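Weekly structure sync - notes
Attendees: PM, LS, DV (DV joined late)
Agenda: review two folding runs queued last week.

Item 1: First target. Sequence and C-alpha cells pasted below for the record.
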Amino acid sequence: MRVRPNTVLAVAYDLLVFFRQVGKPPVEVTSADVFGFIGAQRTGFDGLGLRVVVDGVGLSARTVRRRLSSVSGLFGYLLARGEVPVNPVPRGLPTRRERQRPRQGVPLVRTPRTLPAILAPVEVDALVAALRTERDRAMALAMVLGGLRRCEVLGLRLGDVRAGERRLFIAEGKGGHQRLVPISSRFFVSLGAYLAHERPAEAGTDRVFVVLKGPRRGRPLSAAGVDEVLAGARRRAGLRHGSCHQLRHTCLTRLREAGMALEAVQAQAGHASIESTRIYLHLADDWLAGQYRRAAEAIDAQVLIDHPVQAAGGGVR
C-alpha cells in the first residue's frame, strides 16, 4: 500500500497529540482515556499548548475524527501483534438496534456534511489574471480545468504530459491510483510557454513544476510554494477564497453542470467511490433545480387528472 509522506506526518502528529494527552503507554490506555481525549480536543482545553482552531472552540469534528482513526489504526496493529489486549477506541456508541447490527453504532464523532466553496467564472478569470508566471497559470489551470489535486499537480513528470492527446497521466494519484485525464488546450498553452521560456534548463529533476528563483532554483516546487503562489494571487485579485481544493471543486462542479455523467466526473476526479462524487450533484444548482422542476410538473399533472379544476360556469376547466 502506497502512503504519501504528508499522510505519514499527519498520522505521526495525531499519535503524538494523543499520547501527550493521555500520558500513558499503549498497554495502559482505556476507553475512558479515549473519551477524555475527544472531550479535550473538542473543547480546546488540553493544557499542553497544542494548536486549536482559530475560528471556533476546540478542534473541528473532522480533525478529531481523523485523529481517532489514527489512534484506532495503531491499536488495531498492536492488537494484531498481541502487544495490547484490546483496542480501546470503540467502534461507536451502542444503539437500540445494536442486536441486529452490532457493528453499526452511533459514530463517536459526528462530522457535518458541508458543501465546498466554488469560484464563479469571473473569480476564476480574476485569479488566473493575477498570477505572475506561466508556471503559476499552468498549475492553476490544471486544477480548475482538469480537476487535479495539488499533490497530483506537483507529482507530474515531463513524461506524464501527453500534449498531442491533450491528456495528462496521473501516476501518483490518491491512494496510489493512476489515471489518464483529458484537459483543456488552455492548460497546454500556458504549460508550453512555461517549459519554453521559464523552466530552468539546468533543472536536475523531471518534475514539471520547479522553483524559478533563489537557492532552490530548479528543484521541485513544494506544496507550501503552491499555496504561497495562490495566496498572493488571491490578495492581488481581492478574492476571499480560491485554494487548490476549491479550484478542483470548481472544475468538477462545472463539468457536472455541463451535463457530464456522474461516472465520468468520478473518473476525472480519481474518486475510488462514486459516493465521493455525489456531492457535485448538490453543488450543481441547475441539476437540482431541473430534477425538482420535472418532479413538480409530474405531481401537478397527476393532481389535475385526479381533481380537475372546476370552471366558474360549472364546467371542467
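Item 2: Second target, run right after the first with the same settings.
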Amino acid sequence: MLWCGEPADLRRGRQADPGRDPVRCPWCGNPNDRVVDSRTAEDGVAIRRRRECLRCSRRFTTFERVVEVGVSVVKRDGAKEPFDRGKIVAGVMKAIKNRPVTPEQVDALAARTEERLRRKGPLVTTQEVGLEVLAQLRRLDDVAYLRFASVYKDFQELTDFERELGILLQKRELRGPAGAVSGRRNRSRNKA
C-alpha cells in the first residue's frame, strides 16, 4: 500500500520542487504552503492536514489516503479480470435468502474477504476467492454456507450434501457446544 501525498519539503513550508506536482492553494493557486495541523481522520484511514498558503495566508484542508493496490482474479481459463466485490455480494445474497443475515453482515463479509485476498497478493485465483467466501460464510450461517458450497463445489448428488454437512458438524463439535441460535430454539420449545 502506498501513501499518496505531498513532498516532505511542502509539509515544512518550503518552496515546491520544480519536478513535482504539489498541492496548490484553492484560492490563489500558489504551490507553496505550510502545514498548520495534522491529525488522523476517517478512523485512521486518512491523514487530515490544515494548510496555510504562503502567498495569500488563507487556510485549506487536504487529505492523504492509502492508494489501494488492485487485486486481479485469474479465472480457470487463465483470463484475468479486476476483483469485483459486487460479485461476492451477489453470490452471498442468493445464499442467505430467507436467512437471519443482514445486508450489513454481507457487506462486512465481502470486505473481510477482499482484505484477506489483498494480503495474498495482486493475483488470486477464482478458487482462492471461492474458498475465502466459504470460510467467511461458515462463520456467519451454516445454511448459507451449504447453499453457496452446493453451487461453488458443483454438488451433483445427495451424497455431496451429506459429505459437506458431515464436515460442518465435525467442525462444530470441535468448536464446542452449539451457539446461541440453538440455545434460543431450546428455550422457546420449553416455553410452549
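Discussion on item 2: The chain has two domains: 2-67, 72-175.
Action: LS to circulate a short write-up before next sync.
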